[in-house]
Amino acid sequence: PSEAKKHVSGKDVNRDDLRVVRIGTLDYNLCGCMHVPSLRYLQMLYISGFEKTTKGYKIRYIVGDQLLDCTSKRYKVLDEVSQTLAVPHLYAVTGVHRVINENRQLNRDVLVWKQKYYEMLAKELIKDHSDVVVHCFDDIDARSLSMMAQYVVKNYHKNVVFAAKIYDNVHIVVASGDTASFDAKEVFAQFAEQYHLKGGGNRAMAQGGGIYKEGMFEEIHQKLAS
């Protein structure tokens, strides 16, 4: 705009959008003027979109060297994608859908293997426990810990107290196996108060987490044993 005002100095031009447009070495002129004798001087033109304004329509386009540069960058990205997916450019979308479907199948397989793991581990856990199954994990996430507790309660009707160290945090799940004297919410509340855990639940199942404390698992075992 500052350059444009120099071209119309001394004239009363009430235009806030007045500006100078430079098109390579072809033209340097005020916006709205004829910049090139013919579109063939631009070599190529791509209309990327448009929007309606109060004065009409504003058209977005790319031309000349700018279009070549933009196309080159996009082609490079497409080439990298095609190499990664091992498919030609025209089948890049098909390759993406293939990867998505394979990922979904892998997730389904993971769930199946997790269920088998729960079944095997549950049989081992109930061998050395009577009413309350207590176990601390260091290789399981919070969601899997909850599912593991639900499996033991449902299939073996045991009370459960499971804890898992997840990086610097801890997650505790307490579940009741239909034992009238075992209130999962009350048991969890004791741990929550002692270790400053956040969470909650009901009589059947309660869970939550917080910062892991050294020696925490040993204290949980001792507390439940007494």
Describe the model.
The protein has six helices and nine strands; from the N terminus they run αββββααβαββαββα. The chain has helices spanning 2-7, 64-85, 92-125, 142-156, 184-195, 216-225; strands spanning 20-23, 27-30, 45-53, 56-63, 132-137, 159-166, 169-175, 198-201, 205-211. The strands form three sheets. A five-stranded mixed beta sheet has the order 5-6-7-9-8, sandwiched between helices. Strands 1-2 form a two-stranded antiparallel ribbon. α2 packs parallel to α3 and α3 packs across α4 (142-156). The longest helix is centred in the middle third of the chain and has 34 residues, at 92-125. It is elongated and about 95 Å long. The mean pLDDT is 87.
What is this structure, in a nutshell?
The protein is of the alpha+beta class and 226 residues long. 44% of the residues lie in helices and 25% in strands.
Average pLDDT works out at: 87
What share of the residues does DSSP label as strand, in percent?
25-35%
Radius of gyration: 34 Å
Spatial strand sequence of the major β-sheet: 5-6-7-9-8
CATH class of the largest domain: Alpha Beta
Q: Which stretches are poorly predicted, pLDDT < 50 over at least 5 residues? A: none
The coarse overall form would be elongated
| Helix-strand makeup class | alpha+beta
What keywords describe this structure?
five-stranded mixed β-sheet, 44% helix, alpha+beta, 226 residues, 2 domains, 6 helices, Diaminopimelate Epimerase, Chain A, domain 1
